[in-house]
Amino acid sequence: MKFETTLIEGRLVKRYKRFFADVELASGTIVTAHCPNTGAMAGIKDPGLRVWIEPASNPKRKLRYTWEIVEAGGVLIGAHPARANALAEEAINAGIITELAGYSSLRREVKYGENSRIDLLLEKDGAPPCWVEVKNVHWQRQPGLAEFPDGVTSRGAKHLNELAAQAAKGDRAVQLFVVQRDDCQTLRPAADLDPVYAETIKQARAAGVEVLAYACSVSPEEISISHRMEFATL
């Protein structure tokens, strides 16, 4: 996924009210950017971190910039969680996620479960549909180890239960984690932070839900899924 416009580098002044981030540019000017990550952003929201923001193509937009990338611990990390779905679709179409290759149709945001929409639905003749829920990951507390979630996520547990229900019907169900950084080899549930989610993913796997994790190569020019990671069992 190449960025449509050249990103602008700056320093994070503060992130506040969930949706806003003040960024100091090289000129000393401070601009307010849209913060697309409304979660805890553990480890990537500290004042002073290098960040990259994308100018809006629509001149009428209220906030002229969107926060896209952050550097933490010398590593570039994608800060826009909604990019994960597009990254997954791009990688599936390119055959990079080999476990999800071979389908003739890919649809996004298809209704299923209890008032939910699946991120990706893969289909082909003669095979059960494949329901793919995508989760974005950025958090690292130990070298080489990514963790999810960085805050309690009842919604994430709900999605796992809905995937398990699809698996029980005989369909294929996949929880895909897109880790927007390239310095981790393993992903595990943050059981100390959200024990309910950790237990739910354990139960979902036992019910037939597949769990995949893929890392990303991140630069100010583009972000792309690069290689598979191990998922640590509980």
Fraction of residues in helix: 10-25%
Globally, the shape reads globular
| Low-confidence runs of at least 5 consecutive residues | none
Q: What count of helical segments does DSSP give?
A: 3
Strand and helix order: EEEEEEHEEEEEHEEHEE
Q: Find the count of extended strands (DSSP E, 2+ residues).
A: 15
Beta-strand content bin = 35-45%
Gap from first CA to last CA: 33 Å
**What is Rg?**
18 Å
Structural class call reads alpha+beta
Mean pLDDT: 96
For the sheet with most strands, the description reads:
9 strands, mixed
User: Major sheet: order of its strands?
Assistant: 7-8-9-12-14-15-13-11-10
Account of the protein in words:
With 234 residues, the protein is α+β, with helices and mostly antiparallel strands. It has helices at residues 83-93, 154-168, 195-206; strands spanning 8-16, 20-25, 30-34, 50-55, 65-72, 75-78, 105-112, 116-123, 130-137, 139-142, 145-148, 172-179, 186-189, 210-218, 223-231. The strands form two sheets. It has a nine-stranded mixed beta sheet. Strands 3-2-1-4-5-6 form a six-stranded antiparallel beta sheet, with no helix packed on it. α2 packs parallel to α3 (195-206). The radius of gyration is 18 Å and the shape is globular.
Using brief descriptors, characterize the structure shown.
234 residues; six-stranded antiparallel β-sheet; nine-stranded mixed β-sheet; 15 strands
Which SSEs are present, and which pair or pack?
Layout: E1 8-16, E2 20-25, E3 30-34, E4 50-55, E5 65-72, E6 75-78, H1 83-93, E7 105-112, E8 116-123, E9 130-137, E10 139-142, E11 145-148, H2 154-168, E12 172-179, E13 186-189, H3 195-206, E14 210-218, E15 223-231
